[in-house]
Amino acid sequence: MEVGFLGLGIMGKAMARNLLRNGFRVTVWNRTLSKCQELVSEGASVGETPASVVKKCKYTIAMLSDPSAALSVVFDKDGVLEEISSGKGYIDMSTVDADTSSKISEAITKKGGYFLEAPVSGSKKPAEDGQLVILAAGGKELYEEITPAFNVLGKKSFFLGEVGNGAKMKLVVNMIMGSMMNALSEGLCLADKSGLNPQTLLDVLDLGGVANPMFKLKGPAMIKGSYAPAFPLKHQQKDMRLALALGDEHAVSMPVAATANEAFKKARGLGLGDHDFSAVFEAVKGKGSSGDA
Amino acid sequence: MRYSGGTSGPYRDPFSSSSASSSPSLALREPLLPSPMAAPSILCPRIPIAPLRRPSLLLPRSFSAFASPVSSRLPDEAPKGKEFSGSVGFLGLGIMGSPMALNLLKAGCDVTVWNRTKSKCDHLISLGAKFGSSPAEVTSSCNVTFAMLADPGSALVVACGTNGAAEGMGPGKGYVDVSTVDGATSKLINKQIKDTGGSFLEAPVSGSKKPAEDGQLIFLTAGDASLYETVAPLLDIMGKLRFYLGDVGNGAAMKIVVNMIMGSMMASFSEGLLLSEKVGLDPNVLIEVVSQGAISAPMYSVKGPSMVKAAYPTAFPLKHQQKDLRLALGLAESVSQPIPIAAAANELYKVAKSRGLSDQDFSAVIEALRTKMHSSEQ
């Protein structure tokens, strides 16, 4: 099977690589073209523009960092829209708000193409291991047709109905995740300041009803102050913001999420945007208030 | 449990007509099914003392996390290390105290119980427990007494009030408070007990009703190290793991921090469920999606489905979760640590309490997020 792949960041590169390794012919594009080279040496072809990729491939997957990049790839000059046509499918796996997704969906389908939104739950390692959870919505037929690719990329896929539902589900999940990361950060700080061993706290947490892979994986690195980005903090804060906007739209009370968002904003202000989102721990610790790093 | 002395005395030995029996009564328990979190079997029940600070444990870190899972013992294998021979008191037979005392009784311990409402003792008495008419009476007739009360106020009154536990304490006796309280209360009780010549161990637990029933609690102990060693076999009856954390106050702090995280997580999960519902998603699908990913926690899969149905069967009363968040805020203030997430979560639990949900499971906090009209409602 042949697919186009737009966007070779932390996620896109790992995902495209997985497809290549599993026998897919992949034509890649990235805004910074040089980032395509590594995959070219692994068998990928290169498209100079999103339009050229779509022209060549029946199915094109996109993995961009945020709503504005997702829109740009579609609507700008040499964008997807220029070559999308009847029989072609566009699968946007970026995490965006429902409105952005709807806008893209409408434009694609107006030109005769098929659209599927399919944001994922899972970061760098699950992407590398083909263990993503895919939250698809939109064109059911396209969902069925792209299943072979989803089976390679992920461990489970959900079809959630109309366009917008995938985006919303992703935002809700990441909202909970962002709040949980803040709760863990507060716990580690409080444990430390109370004279407890933070690793012992992690050990206790791992034994009971609140045990979860995220705490187990990231906790020890946080204690060491190590934040190699699996999921950049700036993207987590973007997701919290989008989730809060969704809550605003429907007048849903979300005080914990709102508080978590504040901590992520503060962390961005401390210059931690490109670190892993667990770096919010530094903001919770209270660093940066008097000029220290 | 080995029994010292002959057939006289209050000790009970259901397995043998002779006092010379050395069959380990700890083997009375049904073998536990290994919990999903239990490790491969390790026979030595001793736990390395968890250090207060970095950098290292006495044994490799991986050992401490796996140490002494009771479920790894075979039914007729004699437990290594010391065993407990003596009488055990138990004060407080609520949601937690009742199954904990029951487990001790079923294991063959000589148990004397007390509860503020006497009728709650009846079931255990019918199974062989003795009755003490006051905490003082219990501690005076027992070697070691456990207390499982609802909050700092009751723990203090039971320990230090009139006819309280302290009045029956003395040298050679131990008092183990498994209630969840703040450090100051614990230190106060510690002092009162030590003043009698007795020894004190704070030992709050992680785990709610079902782990209590199943003997799968986690003890977060601190205080008298030799009392800890003495009661370890009893903790192993009631629980799956125990930590010794050093000075009095450390157990309380650890418990408070754990429950702070739990309370915040439940509040956040509630926001997610409600948001998903309001934007047209199926909250049950959200629960499934969460269970597939990095934030999958047993608490979510266990409680999520009933939360969606607006049912909150009480495993951990909401009022106690709110109490724990309040204690966390107090602890944080004492060390000047801002905890805005916990503070926001605390407000939600307070709202839930004001709506009459105190005795529901703490997952009922989701109701606090639903807007309600105030004027003509109950």
From TrEMBL, chain A:
Q: Does the keyword NAD apply?
A: yes
Q: What GO molecular-function term can you cite, just one?
A: 3-hydroxybutyrate dehydrogenase activity
One GO BP:
response to oxidative stress
What SUPFAM superfamilies does the record tag this protein with? Answer: 6-phosphogluconate dehydrogenase C-terminal domain-like (SSF48179), NAD(P)-binding Rossmann-fold domains (SSF51735)
Q: Known Pfam families for this protein?
A: NAD_binding_11 (PF14833), NAD_binding_2 (PF03446)
UniProt keywords, alphabetically: NAD, NADP, Oxidoreductase, Stress response
What catalytic reaction does the record list?
glycolate + NADP(+) = glyoxylate + NADPH + H(+); 4-hydroxybutanoate + NADP(+) = succinate semialdehyde + NADPH + H(+)
Per UniProt, residues of the 3-hydroxyisobutyrate dehydrogenase-like NAD-binding domain are 164-282
Q: Name one GO cellular component term.
A: cytosol
Function according to Swiss-Prot or TrEMBL: Catalyzes the NADPH-dependent reduction of glyoxylate to glycolate as well as succinic semialdehyde (SSA) to gamma-hydroxybutyrate in vitro. May function in redox homeostasis and play a role in oxidative stress tolerance by detoxifying glyoxylate and SSA generated in glycolate metabolism and GABA metabolism, respectively.
Q: Per the similarity annotation, which family is this?
A: Belongs to the HIBADH-related family. NP60 subfamily.
Q: By what name is this protein known?
A: Glyoxylate/succinic semialdehyde reductase 1
Organism of origin:
Ananas comosus
Supply the gene name. Answer: LOC109723212
UniProtKB/TrEMBL annotation, chain B:
6-phosphogluconate dehydrogenase NADP-binding domain location: 88-246
Write the signal peptide boundaries.
none
Q: Does the keyword Oxidoreductase apply?
A: yes
GO CC annotation: chloroplast
Question: Start and end of every 3-hydroxyisobutyrate dehydrogenase-like NAD-binding domain?
Answer: 249-368
Keyword NADP in record: yes
Q: Which domain of life is it from?
A: Eukaryota
Provide the alphabetized UniProt keywords: NAD, NADP, Oxidoreductase, Stress response
Q: Which reaction does it catalyse?
A: glycolate + NADP(+) = glyoxylate + NADPH + H(+); 4-hydroxybutanoate + NADP(+) = succinate semialdehyde + NADPH + H(+)
The cross-references to Pfam families, in alphabetical order and at most eight, read: NAD_binding_11 (PF14833), NAD_binding_2 (PF03446)
Q: Which GO molecular function entries does the Swiss-Prot or TrEMBL record give?
A: glyoxylate reductase (NADPH) activity; NAD binding; NADP binding
| Ranges for region Disordered | 1-24
Q: What does this protein do?
A: Catalyzes the NADPH-dependent reduction of glyoxylate to glycolate as well as succinic semialdehyde (SSA) to gamma-hydroxybutyrate in vitro. May function in redox homeostasis and play a role in oxidative stress tolerance by detoxifying glyoxylate and SSA generated in glycolate metabolism and GABA metabolism, respectively.
Q: Which family does it belong to?
A: Belongs to the HIBADH-related family. NP60 subfamily.
Would you tell me the protein name for this molecule? Glyoxylate/succinic semialdehyde reductase 2, chloroplastic
- Which organism does this record belong to? Ananas comosus
Designated gene of the protein: LOC109722606
